[in-house]
């Protein structure tokens, strides 16, 4: 309730066009979510103009299906930010991938750090008595020059909406964080945000509890493997068991059914084929995978796996996995060997590439280096059958016609694989891929998978 007076702000919202924020429609959730890096999202949220932002996680999506009033509040928001592993999995059900997990616990402190540099102030509304003040103290300690315009609890302090609105407006706050819990915070903003002078309003859930230290966040290692929800469940099993155990299962089931209804039967069949073949291959080939890993470690220094950014369906980048078949400085030496390419066109391939290791030549000869891409198939980034996954620098050099290759998921094998691989020139490979993309069927995929075994044994075009 305490706040300081600040100079009158100059409203440039009509003079400057805010940077556009890329969104992606997720059929499995029937939602448009922000598809951006944290920096891009923050830049958009802090740009001149008024906007209201909500975070959407699995629990929020479950409530949206059951609560019409909350659904209307979500529909009226200016920005919906993807939050949590559940939303990420729902995107993968339709072969999509969001740029980043924009959860509030990570994003809001970053946003406030930039807001402080811009001279903006923030008002904290919500939480139990004393929680907003404790959260404000923590923010002041960790973010130099952050101006706290005021604080107000979400219990007695929230009883009179008129008093809350007047207090926020009198504070001169540029940003208002509302932490009343889902769906109360979104409903409150839906009813009252238009009466607030602040240019940015965000519903932030349990953020104040994390900042105040009343709820301990999962260690970094747990967050890195995307199991923070398990940590939270262990902290509050009685309160969160239904939300996380029953709710998460219901969320994923509903998302899967929605994705299936909106996908063609052929797409469902193809995804089933991808999962079945890749999971079976991972199991059956595990001894070979282990032996290959040992051979790579014995042959040369460096990691077993090679990770590289490739371009997937609709131009979406992803991290592709392979067994390392080259020296660890291969990427930095690429420019040296480009002139020795044996393939015409954009894609580089050299039979005498000096960067390839001894074990690398063997695993390339039998395409064993490609096997870790099974993980990409299971993640929904690749398919068993499809065009060769291209490098970003290759896509930048594509002629317009070649961009049609990106209409389908890239594959471990494909027409190019069974027709000679590196012996196929770029232009011919493009035509093969375009023909496949326009006429692919599950039966054709099965035929190409079977023909791949013969191509691997013959080793034609593999080096």
Report on this model:
This protein has a six-stranded parallel beta sheet with strand order 4-3-8-7-5-6, sandwiched between helices. The protein has a two-stranded antiparallel sheet with strand order 1-2. It has a two-stranded antiparallel ribbon with strand order 9-10. The radius of gyration is 26 Å and the shape is elongated. α3 crosses α8. It has 463 residues and is α/β, with parallel strands linked by helices. It has 21 helices and twelve strands. Mean pLDDT is 87; it is low at 4-15.
Count of extended strands: 12
Radius of gyration: 26 Å
Low-confidence stretches: 4-15
Helix count from the secondary structure assignment = 21
Mean pLDDT: 87
Shape: elongated
Q: What is the straight-line distance between the termini?
A: 70 Å
Summing up helix and strand content along with how strands pair, one would put the structural category as alpha/beta
Largest sheet: 6 strands, parallel
Order the strands across the largest sheet as they lie in space.
Answer: 4-3-8-7-5-6
How much helicity do the residues have? 40-55%
Oligomeric nature of the chains: single chain
Tell me the strand percentage band.
Answer: 5-15%
Write the layout of secondary structure elements.
Blueprint: E1 23-26, E2 31-34, H1 38-46, E3 51-56, H2 58-66, H3 68-76, E4 79-82, H4 85-92, H5 104-117, E5 121-126, H6 131-142, E6 147-152, H7 161-171, E7 175-179, H8 184-192, E8 200-203, H9 207-212, H10 220-224, H11 228-235, H12 237-262, H13 265-284, H14 286-299, E9 305-311, E10 317-323, H15 334-337, H16 358-365, H17 373-378, E11 383-385, H18 392-396, E12 411-413, H19 415-418, H20 426-439, H21 442-458
């Amino acid at each position: 309730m305490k706040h300081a007076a600040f100079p009158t702000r100059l409203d440039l919202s009509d003079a400057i066009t805010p940077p556009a924020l890329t969104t992606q429609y997720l059929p499995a959730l029937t939602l448009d979510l922000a598809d951006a890096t944290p920096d891009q999202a923050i830049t958009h949220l802090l740009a001149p103009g008024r906007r209201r932002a909500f975070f959407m996680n699995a629990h929020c999506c479950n409530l949206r299906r059951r609560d019409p009033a909350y659904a209307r509040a979500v529909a009226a928001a200016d920005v919906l930010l993807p939050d949590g592993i559940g939303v990420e999995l729902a995107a993968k059900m339709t072969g999509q991938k969001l740029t980043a997990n924009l959860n509030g616990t990570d994003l809001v402190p970053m946003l406030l750090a930039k807001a402080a540099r811009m001279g903006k102030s923030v008002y904290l509304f919500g939480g139990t008595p004393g929680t907003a003040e404790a959260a404000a103290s923590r923010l002041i300690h960790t973010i130099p020059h952050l101006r706290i315009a005021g604080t107000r609890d979400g219990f007695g302090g929230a009883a009179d909406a008129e008093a809350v609105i007047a207090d926020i407006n009198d504070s001169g706050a540029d940003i208002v964080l509302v932490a009343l819990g889902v769906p109360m915070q979104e409903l409150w903003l839906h009813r009252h945000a238009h009466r607030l002078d602040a240019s940015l309003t965000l519903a932030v859930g349990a953020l104040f509890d994390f900042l105040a230290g009343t709820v301990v966040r999962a260690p970094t290692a747990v967050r890195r493997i995307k199991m923070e929800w398990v940590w939270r469940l262990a902290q509050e099993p009685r309160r969160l068991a239904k939300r996380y155990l029953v709710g998460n299962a219901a969320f994923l089931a509903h998302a899967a059914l929605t994705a299936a209804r909106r996908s063609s039967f052929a797409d469902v069949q193809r995804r089933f084929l991808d999962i079945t073949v890749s999971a079976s291959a991972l199991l059956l080939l595990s001894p070979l995978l282990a032996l290959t890993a040992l051979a790579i470690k014995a042959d040369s220094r460096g990691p077993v796996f090679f990770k590289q950014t490739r371009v997937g369906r609709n131009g979406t980048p992803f991290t592709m996995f392979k067994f390392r078949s080259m020296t660890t400085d291969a990427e930095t030496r690429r420019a040296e060997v480009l002139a020795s390419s044996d393939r015409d066109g954009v894609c580089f391939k050299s039979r005498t590439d000096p960067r390839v290791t001894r074990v690398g030549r063997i695993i390339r000869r039998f395409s064993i280096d490609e096997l870790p891409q099974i993980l990409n198939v299971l993640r929904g980034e690749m398919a068993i059958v499809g065009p060769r996954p291209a490098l970003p620098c290759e896509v930048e050099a594509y002629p317009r016609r070649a961009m049609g290759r990106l209409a389908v998921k890239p594959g471990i094998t494909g027409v190019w694989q069974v027709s000679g691989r590196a012996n196929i020139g770029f232009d011919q490979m493009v035509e093969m891929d375009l023909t496949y993309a326009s006429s692919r069927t599950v039966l054709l995929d099965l035929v190409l998978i079977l023909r791949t075994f013969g191509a691997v044994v013959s080793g034609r075009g593999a080096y």
